[in-house]
Amino acid sequence: METTLRGVGVSHGVAIGEVRHMGTAVLEPPAKQIPAEDAEREQGRARKAVEAVAADLMARGNLAGGEAQAVLEAQAMIAQDPDLIADVDRRITVGSSAERGIYDAFSHYRELLAGAGEYMAGRVADLDDVRNRIVARLLGVPMPGVPDSDEPYVLIARDLAPADTALLDPALVLGFVTEEGGPTSHSAILARALGVPAVVALPGAGDIAEGTVVAVDGSTGEIFVEPTAEKRAQLEAAAAQRKAALAASTGPGATSDGHKVPLLANVGGPSDVPAAVEAGAEGVGLFRTEFLFLDDSTQAPTEEKQIEAYRKVLEAFPEGRVVVRVLDAGADKPLDFLTPADEPNPALGVRGLRSLLDHPEVLRTQLTALAKAADGLPVYLEVMAPMVADRADAKAFADACRAAGLRAKFGAMVEIPSAALRARSILQEVEFLSLGTNDLAQYTFAADRQVGAVSRLQDPWQPALLDLVALSAEAARAEGKSCGVCGEAASDPLLACVLTGLGVTSLSMGAASIPYVRATLGKYTLAQCERAAAAARAADSAEEARKAAHAVLSGE
Length: 556
Ligand code: PEP
Ligand code: MG
Known about the structure:
Strand order of the largest sheet: 1-8-7-3-4-5-6-2
Largest sheet: 8 strands, mixed
CATH architecture of the largest domain: Alpha-Beta Barrel
Strand content: 5-15%
Number of helices: 22
Distance between the termini: 31 Å
Shape: globular
CATH class of the largest domain: Alpha Beta
Bound molecules: phosphoenolpyruvate, magnesium ion
């Protein structure tokens, strides 16, 4: 009998197929004592396994490229953490086997991370994944992860480790569903980058039996378990219709009455550029440069290395706009050489622009590299700072840009509610705003973006978030400046219409979402978008806001 489950749709499209579960078994090796004379050999085995797993993660990263590569490389670094290795060695010296030493050392580290605050939830999943891989290698059992299957399937997992998401083969994995993770978690961002339909934050998904047929609607967040023939036909027809509409929609982003809303791509580095160009991106609205820095968390990449990477992205959009975000380190993206190790709550600590102002030489090198990379290219370079809190932050950033001789527009990301509330004051210092709705939601609702349990509050349809978007857009309009959105909110086609109605001037998203947003935006006039925006803001919940906007736009 057909049943319907509802999670959070994070990547568009419909997938229908049999369920396969992710191998998540945590292997606990026996706690037997080894003789002292075996210690050295066991230490050698442990090290070899760690090195092999790190090399495997790096190789997976190379294969995947883009944002996934940086995430996997960061995981490889966790595996080789010198403190962890020293702890494994010590445990083996006092009688643990290699596998047990790894297991216990990682468990200890896990407890430290878990106790360091909720924001670490995402990293705990990474740590568990690395541990399971090393232990599996030592025990000679299959690696946990994506199931082996020659037939296409719908993947169900508690949460997807970056190592697995990166290797999902779109030809085999029709779609995926996770019990944990929110709409702005890195798994969701990676799913969109892959173009695979996905639903997250669906508790109970793990109970769906292996081999059951499900239909996943990544736009609505619905999962139909054992869908009837009628439902399948209906979903397939809707998907085919959407595909046809997508193919028919090309050119710059605009409403049906010609109000232009440039559609830009979010990229993590040069390897994301081809997909952006293919999707018809009119430029880059968010170049997350921190992925360049995650290779080596002990020092910044050299100016030459930075110039090379920036130039590759800038060259891809002649006459286009490329918005580069300076390094956004800290919280879920810590860097040893920048991020204080002992913050009680790093998401509220020294992160983003705050780190850069504490380390002006890192900011200077990055801005100088950008100036050199853009030199002689016909691109419209814009540079923005993450986590701007007030006018003083905006001024410090603009001063640093001027001092580096950068010929570009300088902007501020609106990710902290104070920046939205005082947007006009910030605009006295910078030329544009870009709304980072992922962090803006996190800070507005005090809801960690890595924690599935609070994903309701991370929903970008929350009217309070829409109010802050409206405030920022109105301030920019009053100052004659632009205000884009580069958070995940921009990738929801219906919400993109609402954001347009709120006065947002450009939308930036993962390349795979661009055709969907372009097609939907092109169906409505600006006045319709404005009415949908007003209706959404008048609602009392995200769910109602979504329904109200839908009712206006579909003429119900
Ligand atoms: C955001 O916070 O919305 C954003 C675009 O930045 P990131 O997701 O990289 O934190
Ligand atoms: Mg952010």
